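job 3f2a | input accepted
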Amino acid sequence: MYDYIIVGGGSAGCVMANRLSEDPSNKVCLLEAGADDTTFLNDMLIKTPLGIGALMWNPLLNWMYFTEEEKNMGNRRMYHPRGKVLGGSGSINAMIYTRGHASDYDEWEALGNKGWGFKDLLPIFKRGQDQQRGGDDFHGEGGPLSVSDPRQVNMMCDVFADAGEEIGIPKNDDFNGAVQEGVGVFQMSQEGGQRCSPSKAYLQPVRTRPNLTVITKALASKVIIQDKRAVGVVYRQGKKEHRIMAAKEVVLSAGAINTPQLLMLSGVGPKEELAKHGVPLAHHLPGVGKNLQDHLDVILIEKSSQKESYGFSWEFGLKALKAPFEYMKTKSGLLASNAAEAGGFAKTDPSLDKPDVQFHFTPSWLRNHGLAIPEFGHCYSLHVCLLRPKSRGEVTLNDNNPKTKAKIHFNYLDHPDDMTGLVGAVKLAKKLLSAKAFEPYREKSIQPGPEVDTDEKLEEFIRQNAETIYHPVGTCKMGNDEMAVVDDQLRVHGMKGLRVIDASIMPTLIGGNTNGPTMVIAGKAADMMLGVEVLEEDKVSA
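job 3f2a | predicted structure (542 res):
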């Protein structure tokens, strides 16, 4: 018998395992469907920043999801990687650490979620952070998660920032400070040139606690529910089925895809969906799996006439051969790159009160999640996404077998404002790439080519080429309306002893990368569960 069972050892689950086991009287079990991240090969791939290339398509560490056919995206089934290892997607992502805009969290609070405004969450962001530049009003030091400047920054990132400044986007060396808008080099969840994953930060330091049990390769198949109370979890490990019980609570931290699937397999969700697949109804909750949101990414690729970017040439090949030795010795050089070293936040309309697009600049060819074969030579790419899309999708069941992947339908571009916004975003990106700063390097436009010269052609280009930037959220949204799944304490509506604590509780998508905010959701949840209060003097004025 455990006090707490946590399902999912990802970004939120690692935080929860750490915090709930702080009290030695709490007996905690963490279940992870994927692998242990500390074995030699996994550790090497995960810690090395450029290892993301091997992690993106690794079925041993990645769920490798595909969506259903997306009708507004040329009926494509779109690839959607998610981490299947301790640390979750925080073990396979690009390590970019951003928080979003302060107003994103104030909107959550305005929706009726008390205590979720930016003034309430900033102290939790700071507490969890070990900012290598030092602490200040917006940053903490001494926390579990190391946040640092990258050790490898290609000189083309400076060209990108100069180009942004040239067209009126200010340079910014801190997207998590007082002002989000601007272009520059991202900070990373890295320590000493290596990835600092949620597992490295929160789980590995406490795995020897006698009151914490971590079980990997354990696929949760259902939550055991008695009289609308969660009392345990059934999981499979290999060919064996196991049942474990929770005296206090079951916490679902399996992410925006797996958490709603597990709820539905347990009989909690839309009754029509459960009946369709022969799942006995435990509690009708129509919002489970709904409200799915994501950032849709459009990639612009330019051929470079110079060889400063990462590319495919004899000169670069020699550098690549030396890279492993340089990294082993100094934890710097090519292998210390996350590929997307720079970027920023900008407004498509100067009258907007906050940025509506995000850039990720890669000094290389990067297309189709790293699978597309690049041209010989050197390129640079600019990714652009709309920060607050209005389209909503859903996660539903394929059948009642927990081993079967869920149906994922993002419903991208269903709302007409999303296409209008993306067209404006791509135009802004093209303007940036056309700036004088890039003139010494610009050879030709590869994607989109010069033939894409009208809004109609640009719309078609977006439909045929846009991909995910890997930020699914919202499928168990927090709130008090009829489609909300959890309340502002993250307790599942109508249930006892059951919480959802991961990115699926976000009512709306934040304006930035989602990994840091997901860990803060867990930090906030742990405070509530353990009765920890944020002191008034630690809060900031809105």
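job 3f2a | The first strand starts at residue 2 and ends at 7.
job 3f2a | closed
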